[in-house]
Every structure is written in structure tokens, then in C-alpha cells.
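User: two proteins, same treatment. go.

Assistant:
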Amino acid sequence: MTTGHIHTPLAPETLLAALFDTPPEPRHCGGLTLASGALLGHPLDCFVLHGSDCTSTDHATLLEFLATPRTAARPLMGIFACGPAADEDGHLLERQALLLQRLAAARGQAPYLSIVLTQQTGTLAALAALADLTLVARPVGSLALHGPNAMLEARALVFDADALGGPAALRHQSGLALRSCRSTLEALRHARLALPLLSSLQSPVPASAAQPAQALATLLPDTRGAFDCRELVDTLTDAGSLLAWHDDDDLAVATGIARLRGRTFGIVSNRPQRHAGHLGLAELRRIERFLQLCRIRRLPVLSLIDTGGLLPALPDTDADLLATWLRVLDAWQALETPRISIVPRLALGAGALSMGLAPATPRHIRIDWQGAGIQAGGTFADARPAAQPAGPYHLLTAPADCPLAVQTALDLLQA
């Protein structure tokens, strides 16, 4: 069975030249290439694992690279274009454990992005999955703890590599922050868009909104029809700044990062076109993982809530749904950064709590549109109109005035 381990579409020098502003001077160490330079004016350290095998020597050199004080405070990019790990001196497992620790610590200090160009299994897959954003290049890139050959030899079971750890499996089952890219160059392009957003939380020059505020007045077709949350996001965020953190339209929640009046925000939004905004296990996993990113990167969060609650769970997944839902609530509580929640139409039950609906506080400002319904459970007909604001941190606004309300919220959060 062919696993597609060996697939290096571009040489390390070519990858680095396409990534950095000016081609850096790389340092080659067997199957590992190291480089430092600038990406869109931001400092960046990068390592490329390539070749048919990733050896223990490569791991030792990478450990030394990550241990330098110069690297610790700089954003990091990892490009995985290698085959399986080869243990020629018996110390590979210990070095992989140290690498996991070092990368986790490095991610806590500065952004870490990864690009996966080949099939990665075991600890190498974990090293790539630790990133704030993992970019998987089709058709070969995948992440899994076990490859198809290992499953065949151990249990005589035949698995497709994509089913074990391809982009579809990662999006719907793991909740990883991940984008599936059609090519290596597309993955590099997304990396160039993402790093400045994570590296600089405040833009020196706030940009204008992508769409005029007047568009909000006609955004909702009626009280029940689905609308595109992207239109609302584009009206509120700075033009051209939105980068979706996931690239599929199969789930009822979307996440991304964008600039809001010059400041980088994490965006969590319902997608009423899918299951009327109801959330299932896959949606909750996505929210949980993204809130971890926002907590580590200390990103403020903008949540757009339009949900009818949680999807009914199958008997064999009901316990998982409850446990994941509780973890999502804990993730919202763990955020120490400012939050803005917007309820344009409907917020019902546990689904609304999963999207960050909570009492308004000086660090959490809630904006309800006139006519929006909020209810602990039940149906749209049972939902009561949003109450009059109880204080300066709970705003009630007409749809067309929502951008002005968001600006007011930003002023209150900065005060």
C-alpha cells in the first residue's frame, strides 16, 4: 500500500523564497533546513523538515534551534515535507517529547504556524497540530497518529489515508484550527496573511468597513429566513482583513480573525444557513479549539449569535456532546480579553451559551438588535424580545446602527 510519505513539491530554498520578503540564507542540517528573516515586515524563524526520513539528528538540531533566546520571542513557522521518523541512535522518542514541550512553550510566547505538505503520523503530526493555524496542502498532506500501513500490519484493517487524518477528518472530528489548501503555494499565501494578524494586535491605521453600514438594514430577509453571516462580518470589520480559520461550509459555526477598527479580533459566528444555526458536536469542538487560540494569543473576541440551540445527539454521542459543551463554557470563562456579543435575531438555550451569551460586564458588551429574541429554551415563537438595556454594557440598536454600536462598545472596552 502506498502512503505518499515522500512528496516534496518544492525544494526548501524555493519554499523559503516564496515565504520571506527577501530570500534568507538557510542553514542545512541533513533533512532539516533552518532560516530567519522577515515576512511582511514581521520577524520570523522557520524550519523545514524534508527528505524521505526525519532522523534523530534532525530532531536534535531542531531542539537546539528552538532553545535559542533569539527564537523564543519570535513567531515560528514549521513546514513538514518529510517522511516518517527514523530512530538510528535510540534517542528519538525522548527528543520528540522535548520537542513537544519546547513547541508548546514557544507557542505561548509567540505565534506558531505550520504547513503540512506530506502525510505526517505520530509525533510529527502532533508537532504540526500544536500550531495556532495548521495549513494542509492537498492532495498528499494529512495528519494522523497512525498511518494506513501501521493499521494494516497491526490489525489487518485497511484505511484510507484521508479518512485517518485528511483535511475533512480534521475539520469535522478534531476541531483543529486548520485550512485545507489546493497547493503548496496557496498554503504559503495563507501563512503570509495569517502571521501579521497574529503578530500585531493593533494596526497603526484603522481601515474602513468592507461593506457600508446601510446594507445591514436589509440583511435579514424575515424573522425565519437564513442569512449569510459573512455579510454582517464584512460590514463590521476592516476591509480586506478577515481571514477564515476554517475553509468548509458544512458546519453551523464559522471562525476567523479580522481587524476591528485596527485591532485584531477573533470572530465566532453562527451560520443560520446550516441547521438553522443549531450546534452539534463538531461545531462545539471547533469553538473550543478556537477559544484556546484566542486565549493563548490574547485576542479579544467578537461573537455573532443566531442559533436555535443544540442539535439532538445520538445515544452513543450524548455524553460526548455534554462534556464538550461544558468545556466550551469553561473556555469562554477562561478568556481574559474583552468580548463583544451581537444578537441580530435569535438566541435560544444551550446553543446561545455555547456562542458566548452571558451577562454584560465591563469586559463583555452585548449588543441586541431590535426585535431579537432570547429564550432559555423552546421555539422561536416562545422567544421574548431582548429586554431594554440594563446598563452601559448592554446596548439595544437598530440593524443599520450596529456599526456605531460596535464603535461605542470598543470605546467602552478601551476606557
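Protein 2:
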Amino acid sequence: MPGFTIQPPSIENSLILDEGPQKISKQVVIDLGMASLQAIGSDHICKVCISNSGSCCSGCRHLSDRVGCQRRNTSCTAWLCGFIKYVLYETGFLQTWHEFWDQVPGQDYRVDYTPDSFFIQKSLKLPNMRSLSEALAADLQELAQTHIAIGFILTLREKLDKNIDQFMFYHDDPGKQARIRKRIEFLSIPFERFRLALPDFTEKCSDLSDEKESSSMLSETI
């Protein structure tokens, strides 16, 4: 389809748009979403949750035992659990994710009524952050082993989810955001490996941004 490119998840997942609204297919959006989740490293986190009886797909009619998902839709592709949401929150890409999926019509609970094609304007560009999710998954696995309370990991996931949603909702209220940010910081105290990995990721993103800017300036000069 002219104007659209999905890049390998090992580099960067992006939807490259021409100027102005562009028509895109539902399947391309789902494929892009799945590639982006792969770049985020969601599989690392999902393994921990599933091993602690916290599969987000449990009970879905499209889930086949020992086979997996039989009918991926825009709704479940766009949805984020509290832990994956936390990774995007800390890296500054959560708003980017929301802005892209807000353009996709017809999302419902575990199903969609999304048309086969529709127009969007905003692109989705996420750097590879698998190392961060792998670090967070290691933190969560350790928490699961050291906290014998049933459902501890899942409760933590839901608390993060609720607070991050509130943080995004009160974007026009810095005071409330500051209080919510402190709650998120408190909940994430055990994420030691993740916090150690975050500065390295931030530095790499900054270097990549500088390289792209230099390349763009060189192209304009030529």
C-alpha cells in the first residue's frame, strides 16, 4: 500500500505516512500493533503473568486451548496491561500509543467492529525496548517467588494500571499528576533491574534521535 511501511521489530516499528489523512486496512493496523508489542517486549512480561495464572486472554472465546488466539482484533491489540503500560509510561511513549489507537474505530471488549479499511493521520513509532521489558519481567519473577500471597503480581498489575490511567486522565492538572506519580513510584520500588536498564535505553534513544537529525540536516544541505 503506497505510503505505508512496517519495519522489522529489531530496529523500529513505524507506520510511515504521507502528508494528510491516509487510508489503511484493518489487518495492516493489527499487524503493526503486534510488531510494536514485539518491539516493546510484551512476551517477556506475559510469560510471568501467565505462569502466575494471570493470562489476560483467559475466558476469551477466540482462545483455543494449547493452540492460542484464533481471531486477533483491533481491541485486544490496542489494549495494554498495567505492566506493559508502565514500560511505555516510563519511556514516554504511552501517549504515542494512545494517539495512534484512538484513530482506530470499532473497538469493543475482546471484539471489534472495525471496518476493513479507514483513514488515519498519526503514525506509530516505537523504538526497540525489549531489554527493558526483560528486566521488568525478571523483577516480577523475583517478586512472585518472594511474595507468597496469592495474586500478589496480579494485584500489583491492576494497581499500576489504575494509577497510570488516572495520571493520563488528569493531564491538565499538574497537582493531581504529581500525587499520582508518587503512587506509581511507590508501587514500582521493587523494579530494581528495570530502573538500572532505563538510563541506558534513554541514552540510546537520544543517540538515535541525534543521528536522525544529523542525517536529515545533511540531506537538506545536499
